[in-house]
């Protein structure tokens, strides 16, 4: 499969639309069933998500209810969106190419807050209700993606959302050449920079230390400029991750507790009915 | 030597699979995917207790590009490592000079490299090195702690490696690559490891070491016992070449033999010569008696010396590689 990945709010939906317009078959719907009108405003052209956003692995393929199974050979050129934690979970047999998009971490944090506000209005979903600093989440996911690429060494192209908006033809052309096919003109027509809701002037989150913010900026800049990561830079990323790990694990534990509580409430509700 | 993120093609590893990393320890339990072992436990297993797979924290970082590790292990010319090779009897002299020079040059070279890197970092335009925390900047030699004992133990320090010098160790690098061999020495931020099984010397940056396992403590340099030192001295002292014994034995044997031959011929010609020539026979026999054993012992000593010489030759080789030359320096003890 050709997996489109990134954090939420980083342009994954736009890349799905681009590759679909370029002529690739896809897995996923523009607006999955539970997502109603509120989220439509956040992404008017559709999200193109499927049950595989959490990864293509034993828990999702075969389909746990129907038993339908997607063979790797049947889906080599199918495009589907998988968020970064799902990429890490996915079996290597299904990872033919990964198109990854990274958004500026300040803009990402602002966009996540905006999305959270939209959901808080009527509590449609708990998807964004995670007590995790958006900036830390940005780091955790993007670091995890680079680690996974470096470790499992699958074919991947990592770019930035801002780079795509700045020069859609060039970036899309690069990716389609790398993929070996696709209608560049139709694909480039998808990109509308006016869709961007959070610009480069987004405020710096206050919960990140300046030295960590500099590392975040350096990582983003390296990806944006298309630079390879030197061993010394990789060492610095590893050190930063080790320093942020206690905060990540605290939130990890909190999320687990929160999820367990919700499951218990749901079970209790079922029993009492 | 970098991690490529744009338009990268899939690749695999050219290093051996690190199967051992998965082999040891308790059976892992995946409590979140219905592992039967987890059902038998009274409560949810803690990751520390049973190594629960699903709940296990990912502590590994981004692996260092394998290409970089390979360059270190293979002593690629790009890592600024050179080997020299000589063959023949003069090799021992040259080797001694090379070792002496190496001992003097290695720390200086490491320091020079260090300074060079620091200068590069200062003038770097990409800002990567500039952002490194100030506390990790290399300290000048003159500011090194006076007492090594006060240094905390760490893979990047000196104290730990000094303690295992001469030991056979297994070093796991970040990224999982393992190197087995003997710790020869250390200089600044690097180690010199004589790799098993061929003794190829590899330079290993200390900061890349993620795990150390001592396989055989061996004998640390500087703490050799008197008996061990005598044994080593004896092993390194060449045996007698046997030339003197051979020459002396040859002279005695030939002289004695000639006398006895002359006595025999004269006796055949004239039987009365026996009484006159008896002293000739006695002297000849007395010369041959010690002459033959001396000759045999001398020949044996020459053979032993020849074998010792062959074992203590130094073999050197150069081979062109991509972007330079690779050399090997092989000592045989």
Report on this model:
The complex is a heterodimer of chains A (273) and B (333). With 273 residues, chain A is α/β, with parallel strands linked by helices. Chain A has one domain (2-272). Chain A contains 10 helices and 5 strands. In chain A, strands 2-3-1-4-5 form a 5-stranded parallel β-sheet, sandwiched between helices. In chain A, helix 5 crosses helix 10. The model of chain A has no long low-confidence stretch (mean pLDDT 85). Chain B has 333 residues and is of the alpha+beta class. Among the domains of chain B are: 14-59, no CATH class; 152-224, SH3 type barrels (Roll); 243-311. Chain B has helices at residues 20-23, 36-40, 47-50, 66-73, 91-123, 159-163, 226-236, 243-269, 273-311, and strands at 168-173, 178-187, 190-195, 201-205, 209-216, 314-321, 324-331. In chain B, helix 8 (243-269) runs antiparallel to helix 9 (273-311). Chain B is rod-shaped. The two termini of chain B are 36 Å apart. Residues 41-54, 76-91, 98-146 and 315-323 of chain B have low confidence and may be disordered. Chain A binds chain B through residues 58-59, 143-144, 146-147, 149-151, 153-159, 174-175, 178, 211, 214-215, 218, 223, 226-239, 241-242, 245, 249, and chain B through 1-13, 33, 57-65, 68, 126-129, 131-133, 174, 207.
Oligomer: heterodimer
Helix fraction of chain B, binned, reads 40-55%
Terminal CA distance of chain A reads 43 Å
Write the H/E string of chain B, N to C. HHHHHHEEEEEHHHEE
Strand order of the largest sheet of chain B: 4-3-2-1-5
Number of helices of chain A: 10
Over all CA atoms, what is the radius of gyration of chain A? 19 Å
Proportion of helical residues of chain A:
40-55%
The termini of chain B sit apart by 36 Å
Task: Please mark out the parts of chain A with pLDDT under 50 across 5 or more consecutive residues, or reply none.
Answer: none
Give the largest interface pair and sizes.
A-B, 42 and 33 residues
Arithmetic mean pLDDT of chain A: 85
CATH class term of one domain in chain B: Mainly Beta
Identify the overall geometry of chain A.
Answer: globular
The portion of residues forming beta strands of chain B comes to 15-25%
Poorly predicted ranges of chain B (pLDDT <50, ≥5 residues)? 41-54, 76-91, 98-146, 315-323
Second-tier CATH architecture of one domain in chain B = Roll
Radius of gyration based on Cα positions of chain B: 33 Å
**Largest beta sheet of chain A: what is the strand line-up?**
2-3-1-4-5
């Amino acid at each position: 499969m050709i997996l489109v990945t990134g954090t939420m709010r980083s342009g994954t939906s736009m890349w799905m639309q681009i590759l679909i317009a370029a002529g690739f078959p896809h897995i996923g719907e523009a607006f999955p069933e539970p997502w109603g009108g509120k989220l439509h405003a956040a992404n008017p052209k559709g999200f193109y998500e499927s049950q595989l956003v959490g990864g293509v692995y034993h828990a999702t393929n075969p389909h746990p209810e129907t038993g339908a199974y997607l063979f790797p050979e049947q889906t080599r050129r199918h495009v589907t969106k998988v968020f970064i934690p799902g990429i890490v979970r996915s079996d290597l047999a299904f990872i033919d190419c990964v198109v990854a998009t990274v958004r500026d971490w300040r803009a990402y944090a602002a966009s996540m807050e905006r999305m959270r506000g939209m959901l808080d209005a009527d509590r449609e979903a708990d998807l964004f209700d995670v007590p995790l600093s958006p900036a830390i989440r940005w780091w955790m996911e993007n670091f995890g993606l680079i680690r996974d690429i470096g470790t499992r060494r699958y074919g991947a192209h990592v770019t930035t959302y801002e780079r795509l908006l700045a020069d859609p033809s060039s970036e899309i052309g690069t990716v389609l050449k790398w993929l070996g096919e696709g209608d560049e003109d139709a694909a480039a027509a998808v990109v509308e920079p006016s869709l961007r809701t959070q610009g480069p002037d987004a405020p710096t989150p206050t919960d990140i230390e300046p030295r960590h913010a500099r590392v975040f900026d350096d990582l983003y800049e390296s990806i944006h400029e298309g630079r390879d990561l030197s061993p010394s830079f990789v060492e610095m990323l590893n050190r930063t991750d080790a320093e942020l790990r206690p905060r990540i694990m605290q939130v990890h534990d909190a999320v687990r507790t929160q999820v367990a509580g919700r499951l218990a409430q749901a079970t209790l509700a079922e029993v009492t009915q | 030597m970098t991690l490529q993120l744009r338009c990268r093609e899939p690749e695999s590893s050219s290093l051996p699979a690190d199967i051992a990393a998965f082999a040891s320890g308790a059976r892992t339990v995946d409590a979140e995917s219905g592992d039967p072992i987890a059902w038998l436990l009274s409560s949810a297993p803690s990751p520390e207790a049973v190594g629960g797979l699903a709940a296990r924290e990912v502590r590994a970082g981004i692996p260092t590009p394998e290409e970089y590790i390979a360059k270190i292990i293979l002593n690629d010319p790009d890592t600024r490592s050179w080997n020299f090779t000589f063959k023949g009897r003069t090799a021992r002299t040259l080797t001694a000079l090379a070792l002496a020079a190496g001992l003097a040059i290695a720390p200086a070279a490491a320091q020079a490299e260090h300074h060079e890197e620091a200068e590069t970092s200062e003038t770097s335009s990409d800002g990567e090195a500039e952002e490194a925390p100030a506390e990790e900047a290399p300290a000048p030699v003159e500011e090194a702690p006076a007492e090594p004992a006060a240094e905390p133990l760490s893979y990047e320090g000196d104290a730990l490696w000094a303690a295992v010098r001469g030991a056979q160790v297994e070093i796991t690098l970040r990224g999982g690559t393992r190197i087995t061999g003997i710790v020869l020495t250390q200089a600044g931020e690097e180690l010199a490891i004589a790799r098993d099984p061929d003794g190829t010397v590899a330079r290993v940056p200390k900061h890349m070491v993620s795990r150390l396992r001592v396989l055989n403590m061996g004998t640390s340099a500087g703490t050799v016992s008197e008996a061990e030192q005598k044994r080593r001295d004896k092993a390194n002292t060449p045996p007698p070449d046997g030339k003197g014994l051979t020459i002396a034995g040859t002279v005695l044997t030939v002289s004695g033999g000639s006398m006895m031959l002359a006595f025999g011929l004269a006796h055949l010609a004239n039987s009365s010569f026996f009484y006159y020539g008896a002293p000739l026979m006695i002297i000849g026999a007395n010369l041959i008696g010690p002459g033959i054993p001396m000759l045999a012992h001398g020949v044996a000593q020459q053979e032993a010396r020849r074998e010792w010489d062959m074992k203590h030759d130094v073999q050197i080789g150069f081979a062109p590689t991509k972007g330079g030359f690779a050399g090997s320096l092989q000592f045989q003890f």
